[in-house]
Design brief:
With 221 residues, the protein is α/β, with parallel strands linked by helices. It contains six helices and nine strands; from the N terminus they run E-E-E-H-E-H-E-E-H-E-H-E-H-E-H. It has a nine-stranded mixed beta sheet.
């Protein structure tokens, strides 16, 4: 019998980051993460035994009750640290036209499917002591054609490190998005302005943080 999932929250909102920013989406936030980014805005999802337990049947019923949306975002926590993530994604792509998984890349891609997309965010050295572990599977992620790489940048030094890692691993520039780190609209705006110049110069895309801009640091957005 399948084990229940551990979730932090389910909600309907707009995708705030990455290539589908602005798209109405159902969010499935899984519970549990030990990557430990210092700037994480969902630290309530770190503790593996936090949140609540839910069966697969209850999960899909509650997600459907949120309302129609063309996108399901599977986030965390760290989705790849869920023992049954592959089975969960099999069921997700059977129900949604597009599924996006937000991950640090701490493990290899659990599935590949035409409707399954990955927003992979390997970490820089300023984010967490475990940053190197998030680059260990980068070759497998580059080989996954529906993976986009989102690097979180807070300073010019971060940008230099991000650019060095992109070059080191030969990540295609058109699959790279740079996103400003920040918890407030003024900080995001200031960092977006100088990141935009670098994106124009290098051919990277700039990711917004729409949910912070629209609603601030609130759960369920």
């Amino acid at each position: 019998m399948p084990r229940p999932y551990r979730i932090a929250e389910l909600f309907l909102s707009l995708q705030g980051e990455g290539p589908s920013a602005g798209t109405p989406a159902c969010f499935l936030r899984l519970q549990g993460c030990d990557v430990g980014c210092r700037w994480c805005d969902t630290k309530y999802s770190w503790e593996a035994q936090g949140g609540r337990s839910i069966s697969a049947g209850e999960l899909w019923t509650e997600l459907a009750a949120l309302g129609d949306a063309p996108l399901l975002v599977v986030t965390g926590g760290e989705p790849l640290q869920q023992a049954q993530i592959g089975e969960l994604l099999d069921q997700a792509v059977a129900r949604w036209p597009r599924v996006e998984v937000e991950t640090s890349g701490i493990g290899p891609p659990p599935r590949s499917h035409p409707r399954l997309h990955y927003n992979v965010s390997p970490k820089l050295s300023t984010a967490t002591p475990r940053w190197e572990a998030t680059w260990e599977h980068i070759a497998a992620w580059i080989a996954e054609p529906r993976a986009t790489f989102k690097l979180v940048v807070a300073s010019p030094e971060d940008y230099d490190e991000a650019r060095a890692m992109i070059i080191r691993y030969a990540i295609p520039g058109e699959r790279v998005m740079l996103m400003p780190e920040g918890m407030t609209e003024p900080v995001l705006r200031a960092r977006s302005e100088w990141l935009a110049d670098r994106c124009k110069r290098e051919g990277f895309r700039l990711s917004p943080r729409l949910h912070v801009w629209l609603w601030g640091m609130r759960r369920g957005t």
